[in-house]
Amino acid sequence: MLETKENLLYFLDNKPYINMTNICTNKCVFCVRDQKQDVQGANLWLDKDNKTTKDYLNQIINHSKEIENSKEIVFCGYGEPLIKINEVVEIAKYLKENYPHLKIRINTNGHANAIHKKNIAPLLAPYIDSISVSLNAQNEEVYNKISNPKIDNAYEEVKRFIRSCVEEKIRTTASVVDKVPNYPIDLIRCEKIARSLGANFRSRDFIPNGY
Ligand code: SF4
């Protein structure tokens, strides 16, 4: 059943996720946002994109028992989490201080340095254990078709961001979505690019309707 409350924190298979924003600088052809309102019943659309760190900490505190029992928490929702860089850093710092066993991951489109016009990887490094960056394609032409970015030189920015995270010694994975109908990608070339940037590589198959 679809919940109506705003889920700043939500759970998939008992694993906690943080939903930072509904704004994104991509419009990926495989994005579940255009297909459905919810992920496993949790509504991920926010009434207003004005949530503060305190709003997030309130929901985290309300679910402290579940978080205590989790191994990892992931910043990933219906938008690009690193648009809210200050809040992400504050929340991650709180989580590290209060749940030291908890691994913290961010799933990102890799546009953050371009959005904030500075290298934000050093801000993440003290608190973030791993980061998954959507490489999405083997070259700019395919990337632009799949991701429909709203920023200039997005593919180069994504690659630069991956390298920035690697340089900060954050465990970095470049990811692609395979088997999206009509958008074939070259997995071997994508993996080569990821490795050349010093990152791990992961592909997952497209799942119609998200989850
Ligand atoms: S980067 Fe993520 S949230 Fe943004 S459009 Fe692509 S899949 Fe959706």
Key words describing this protein structure:
binds iron/sulfur cluster; 7-stranded mixed beta sheet; globular; TIM Barrel; 9 strands; alpha/beta; 211 residues; two-stranded antiparallel ribbon
Fold and architecture overview:
The protein has 211 residues and is of the alpha/beta class. The chain has a single domain, classed as TIM Barrel (Alpha-Beta Barrel). It contains eight helices and nine strands. Strand 1 (9-12) and strand 2 (15-18) form a beta hairpin. It is globular.
Concise structural overview:
With 211 residues, this protein is α/β, with parallel strands linked by helices.
Choose one word for the global shape: globular
Helix content: 25-40%
Q: How many structurally independent domains?
A: 1
Look at the helices and sheets and give the structural class. Answer: alpha/beta
Biggest β-sheet: strands ordered side by side in the sheet = 1-2-5-6-7-8-9
CATH class wording: Alpha Beta
Global Rg? 16 Å
CATH-derived topology = TIM Barrel
What is the arithmetic mean of pLDDT?
Answer: 93
What is the N-to-C succession of helices and strands?
Answer: EEEEHHEHEHHEHHEHE
Span of the ends, CA to CA? 15 Å
CATH H level: which superfamily? Answer: Aldolase class I
Bound molecules: iron/sulfur cluster
CATH architecture: Alpha-Beta Barrel
Strand element count: 9
Strand portion: 15-25%
Largest sheet: 7 strands, mixed
Number of helices: 8
Unreliable segments of 5+ consecutive residues: none
